[in-house]
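User: DNA-binding transcriptional regulator, LysR family, Duganella sacchari:
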Amino acid sequence: MKRNLDLGLLRTLICISETGSMSGAAQRLYVTQGAVSHQVKRLEQLLDQRLLERGNDGVRLSDAGLRLVNEGRELLRMHDELLSSFTVASVTGRVRLGVPYDLLARQLPPMLQAFIARYPQVEVAVTAGTSPGLRRQYDAGELDLVILEEMHGSSSGRLLRLDRPVWIGKSEGTAWTRRPLPVSLVAPDCVFRPLIQSVLGAAGRDWYTVMDYPSIEATISTVLTDDAVSVLLASTVPPALQILDDSSGLPGLPQFAISLQGLDAGDSPAAAALADAIVEGYVQLNVAMP
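Assistant: Predicted structure for DNA-binding transcriptional regulator, LysR family:
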């Protein structure tokens, strides 16, 4: 008797491998952790193989699980492309997307280019801003989809990526040694401002703002000229800048989450298609930049 592989179960296992935990997969898939565990058990029973090794430090893929994930990604890609090929022509409309300045500069361009090439009849209107500002616009109904950077644990929506903020400075620069510490931020409501204020206050380090201007390019410029340091997510740091490690004496920063809001916009096929493209884009990014 032939058996059929449930692609939903396969997606769950791949999510576990990408997030590193049952709880991370549950958050990404919008299900309970118990449901994720049940789906893995069903998949193990179907294949008569142990796919996860469970230990005190969490879960990891077994040899069989690693093989299934590696080969299963290609299977899911082919499945999704085939399904999409029957619906692309009918997807039209306009989607208002909000993206933080740093992500728009470093991560979103290839995802948006691929989406526009695939859905030429969809108009994407992108608004760049800070996460607090974009959330206000989304709550006011001015945006259909919004990508947000928030402290991990306080984030909502679909988890796209976990990342850590880092201090950055000019390569071989000295701005980080100055007292008070000069800091350049992208805007007065920069999502990192409360964090910077908290950790520097706890460390007894005085600081002041060199620039509050809504431009990631202007922020980077002040760092490149060694007029200030700044804070960015590690995956968005330009190659020309240096990540300041613990030897700088600057306090460590907690993990942040990049999440997508607006997945409940089910009335808009265009918004749903863009949301799927962003999620898939981050799946690929997370593989390339673990």
